[in-house]
Specification:
It is built from twelve helices and no strands. With 218 residues, the chain is mainly α. It binds a DNA duplex (13 and 12 nucleotides) through residues 33-35, 37-45, 47, 76-84, 87, 122-128, 131, 143, 145-148, 194-195, 197-198, 201-202, 206-208.
Length: 218
Amino acid sequence: MDRNLNLIYQKLYSYFGPQHWWPARTPFEVIIGAILTQNTNWLNVEKAIGNLKKYKLLQPVTLYKLPHKRLASLIRSAGYYNIKAKRLKSFLKFFIKYYNGSIKKMSKGSTISLRQQLLLVNGIGPETADSILLYALDKPVFVVDAYTKRILSRHRFIPEGAGYDETQNLFMNNFSPKGRPAGSPNIRLFNEYHALLVKLGKEFCLKRRPKCEMCPLK
DNA sequence: GACCAGGCACATC
DNA sequence: GATGTGCATGGT
């Protein structure tokens, strides 16, 4: 099993090359993007983040103090803007209260405890929590998203409709980076693998009309 | 005009 | 525990 996951990684990497994820300039920007991109096209998120940058609002306390209506209108392009404005605020409240708005302080926490804390924040579920852990805080967790599940179920690694943890465990327990035992954490590899799965998903493993004939995994 | 995008919370059974 | 629904914009 793990041989196949390794093989898929090798194929994707040689076909697409390094993805240089997450597409953001700072860890804080990663977190804001992770919340804004929930069920949303990344291009729409970039516009929203561009607005926040334009007015120099992309800092924890500044953003937290912004009135709901103003924040919602600035992130309008990302869709679900009312609910996302609320979710950003609930994360910022947590981030400021417990870590003084400091990524450095937050990074000192253990992966397990940070994950538990993040999941208690309203608006942060397993994928957003893991994206924050991996891409903003450099913690060794595998991020599972809709593309990951679709690709893995179409290739019969998991049943259709498999849960988040089940899918994540497949990678965390079985994927063995070169020269390491299965289950050993590898941040860089987890980073690259998830980014490659998203790339494959966007270009070939489409929901309705997958381009299986041209797929690099074929 | 329909379909889709790097989810999540909440209601209901 | 499983299933259904609201949230919303912008690109194809």
